[in-house]
Every structure is written in C-alpha cells, then in structure tokens.
C-alpha cells in the first residue's frame, strides 16, 4: 500500500503564482480525477510533482510513503514509484523505446531477461504495433501511437502512483478505450493509484474514478464522487471560475 500526499502545494511559473495550496491524497488502487478549465494549473500540478525545470515550489510538500519527493531529482522520483503519462509525449530521436524500458527497469533493480516477451504481451493488450518499440521514442508516431506507447511504459514499469495528464488528448476513440482500460486494469492487477487529469468524462467509461476534484484558479474548489463529473458535463465550470 502506497500513498502520495500533496499538501498545501504552491507553485509559481515564470514569476506567476499558478498553484495556491493544493491538497490531494492518493493511495494504491484509487483513481482520482482532476478536472478544471483551461489554464487552471492542471499540467502545472503534474509538472511540479515530477520536478519539471521552471516550476518553482513556493510552499507545501509532496511525499510518497513519507519520503519527500520535492527533494529528489526527477529520475529518483520515478524510481521511487511516480510515473507521468505526458499530455504531449516528447520525441527523443536516437533512443529506442525498448532500450528506454531496459534502462528504466535496470535503474529499479529489476530484471530485463524477459523484457522482449513482456513488451510483446503488453503491446498486444493495447493493440500497439510491436515494431514501433524499435523506432526512436515517439518520433513520427501518430497521436494514438504516442499514447499507446506511454501506456505501454506504464504497464511495464508498474509504478506505485501514476499521473495521467490528458490521456484523452490527441487520440481516437479506439486508442482511448485501449489505453484507459489498461490503466483501469493496472489499478486492479498491480494496485496502481492514479491521478487522472482530464476535461472529458468520456475517459471514465473505461477508467472509473473513485473521486473527482475540480481545480480552478490553482486550488481544489470541490471534491466528490463520479457524479461530480456528470454535473460538470451538464453545467460546465461557470460556477467555479
Ligand atoms: P491547465 O493544464 O490546467 O490548462 P497549465 O498548468 O498548463 O493549465 O497552465 C496554468 C497557467 O500557467 C497558464 O496561465 C499558463 O500559461 C501558465 N504556465 C504553465 N506553464 C508555463 C511555463 N512553462 N511558462 C510560462 N507560463 C506557464
Ligand atoms: Mg494542461
């Protein structure tokens, strides 16, 4: 059982205060959706948790099982069990996905002996073309292929807590269903805890949130169950901005 605790997190970017005291606690097996209007600070939250350069922590804390994540470089946060599925996956020319996974498993002290077989099995589960693992990471992949690629990494690395920043942006309905279902499966098979940032409750057809939080103007302004997403779908964010 793992727990990510985000406490009174305050973050500024390029001199502007974007997050003004965010509190969230995510435990193994739980799915927490974070929804909110454009510019509310959702991507800033994911960037701050993972330690993206330029995102300045001006207050608060982020701990995973009591360990201060904000004191660690990004790769050590990942080794500790945090994982980010990026809204816009980065293209890395010259670096293959299978080599990336081998390095990441090695850093975690895990065996790579059966990696090829694991990749083949996991690729089949999400309808990802296994030939793409030999290609440079994300280079010239379609939107759907990039998100399947991200989901494949999540499935194989099996982090404790994953942050998914708009898994549903840039991919078609079939790819969305495959990726969302794989993440939902991970919450059951490997007890993954997930912080799921999205605009659209369509994602929740496969990936079932236990909690829904509304982020507006850099704060969580309301939390509830899945019914809160239906409310937003119906009424929009007008009441919160
Ligand atoms: P969301 O993901 O909720 O749409 P973001 O976290 O991306 O919102 O952005 C929140 C605010 O922070 C926006 O006003 C955005 O322009 C600003 N911001 C985010 N990242 C940067 C950055 N790297 N440089 C300058 N401003 C940024
Ligand atoms: Mg965003």
Quick recap:
The chain is of the alpha/beta class and 241 residues long. It has helices at 42-50, 74-80, 97-107, 115-125, 143-157, 173-189, 227-235; strands at 3-13, 16-27, 31-35, 55-64, 67-68, 82-85, 92-96, 136-137, 161-165, 193-197, 211-216, 219-224. It has a domain at 3-88 and 161-235: Rossmann fold.
Describe this structure in words.
The protein is of the alpha/beta class. The chain has a domain of 161 residues: P-loop containing nucleotide triphosphate hydrolases (Rossmann fold), CATH 3.40.50. A 6-stranded mixed beta sheet has the order 6-9-10-3-11-12, with helices on both faces. The protein has a 4-stranded antiparallel beta sheet with strand order 2-1-4-5. Helix 6 links the parallel strand 9 and strand 10. Helix 4 crosses helix 5 and helix 5 runs parallel beside helix 6. The radius of gyration is 17 Å and the shape is globular. Bound molecules: adenosine-5'-diphosphate (ADP) and magnesium ion. Magnesium ion binds next to helix 1.
Set down the secondary structure blueprint:
Blueprint: E1 3-13, E2 16-27, E3 31-35, H1 42-50, E4 55-64, E5 67-68, H2 74-80, E6 82-85, E7 92-96, H3 97-107, H4 115-125, E8 136-137, H5 143-157, E9 161-165, H6 173-189, E10 193-197, E11 211-216, E12 219-224, H7 227-235
Parallel strand pairs: 3-10, 3-11, 6-9, 9-10
Antiparallel strand pairs: 1-2, 1-4, 4-5, 7-8, 11-12
Helix pairs in contact: 3-5, 4-5, 5-6
Bound molecules: adenosine-5'-diphosphate (ADP) and magnesium ion.
